[in-house]
Amino acid sequence: MPPYTNVHRAFLQACSNHGTMSKEQAFNMYIAICAQHDSNHLIPAEKDLDQVVEAINERIYRFDQKIVLTHYEPTDMDFYVFVSLQESPVDLQLNAFTAPELHYFRVLLRELTLSEDHTLAVITCLNLTMDTVSEGAKPLAKMRAEQLLQEWEQLGYFLTLDDKCYLGPKAVVEFEKYINKNFADVVTRCCLCNVTIFYGVRCASCPQILHKDCLKKYLRRLTNCPACKNLWTVPM
Predict the structure, then answer these.
(1) Cα-flanking dihedrals φ and ψ of residue 193, to 5°?
(2) Where does this protein reside within or beyond the cell (predicted)?
């Protein structure tokens, strides 16, 4: 087994600090780290980063942590996401925020999960601050809610796109078990990969929704919907 080096430690630290990095951003970070810590002066390749992530995961799995490479449907991009594998309350994942702020996070997570297409208008998200009111307390200020959305988007928990808010790549990966446990009646799985699906392509003939990447591979071989068997007509 190759040695665990300062390159591994520095890349783990970068993933932990950023929470979520696009594949391109992560690779550029890896190149910079190699230039600083690797005395071999070899030009890094993407497959080298795969090996580095694998070695890191072997070390951190015992701490219920993992770096996951995931494809995020709303932006059609790949992301490296640093996640906790604990099936635990949201409070343990976001311990840098106040109780009302954490409650607002849970409300956002709940409402995005329960919405039909797992999106909400940004203004609707800001209006959810009224759901943070407790007896004798004021609701979370909307200005603070805007700041929180920006902070949580930087960490990858949410995404704002065209005035809509989505579950971000980190939320999709890190809270999959939490969402399945608490909202089992509203989440579904892609029938091709059996992974929980939040965003994808819906069949024109039935309610089935599939990951775009899964469907692209499937349509190379077959032309019918894998669920209803009717001809697939939705453009990719």
Answers:
(1) -115, -10
(2) Chromosome; Nucleus
160: tokens are: 């704002």
The pTM of the full predicted model, rounded to 2 decimals, is 0.85
Place of tokens 């550029």: 28
**Number of folded domains that form the chain:** 3
Quote the CA–CA distance of 59 and 137 in Å, as a whole number: 44
Which CATH number is 230's domain given? 3.30.40.10
| Buried b / exposed e along 91-114 (16+ C-beta atoms within 10 A) | eebbeebeebbbbbbbbbbebbbe
Q: CB 230: neighbour CB atoms within 10 A?
A: 12
Q: Tell me the one-letter amino acid at 132.
A: T
At residue 87, what is the residue type?
E
pLDDT score at 88: 61
pLDDT tens digit string along 63-115?
989 999 999 999 999 999 999 887 665 655 667 888 888 889 999 999 999 99
